[in-house]
């Protein structure tokens, strides 16, 4: 994990492996900031959807029991959202480096779309 001090806050950048391990142990809440269309086509099972266009940091839960980790397609949008969360007063925020592309590139399981039927299909 990489860390960067942003004022009095800490921005963490997690690898797909770190996210997968923490998610499997139920230590984090994974929030997908991609569009609803991207999410419906393929997503990490159990990740919550809060599209960047509708992001409201004041609506996020506290991080007392579970940490929040944002992710998007490549890591660019999730970093912007993480920085917006810090700007709203959150003291420690994380996002996944490389986004969903890194997750798929690491051969982690996800829900895809069966192109023949349009049905959600587990991949990996």
UniProtKB/TrEMBL annotation:
Database matches in CDD domains: RHOD
Boundaries of every Rhodanese domain copy: 24-112
Organism: Salipiger mangrovisoli
Alphabetical list of Pfam families matching this protein: Rhodanese
PROSITE patterns reported for this sequence: RHODANESE_3
Domain of life according to the entry: Bacteria
Protein name: Rhodanese-like domain-containing protein
């Amino acid at each position: 994990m990489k860390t960067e001090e942003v004022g009095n806050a800490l921005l963490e950048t997690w690898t797909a492996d770190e996210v997968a391990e923490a998610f499997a142990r139920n230590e984090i809440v994974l929030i997908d900031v991609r569009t609803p269309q991207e999410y419906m086509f393929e997503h990490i099972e159990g990740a919550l959807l809060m599209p960047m266009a509708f992001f409201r940091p004041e609506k996020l839960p506290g991080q007392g029991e579970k940490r929040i980790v944002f992710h998007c397609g490549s890591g660019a949008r999730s970093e912007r959202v993480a920085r917006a969360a810090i700007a709203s007063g959150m003291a420690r925020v994380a996002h996944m480096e490389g986004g969903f592309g890194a997750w798929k590139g690491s051969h982690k399981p996800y829900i895809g779309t069966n192109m023949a039927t349009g049905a959600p299909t587990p991949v990996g």
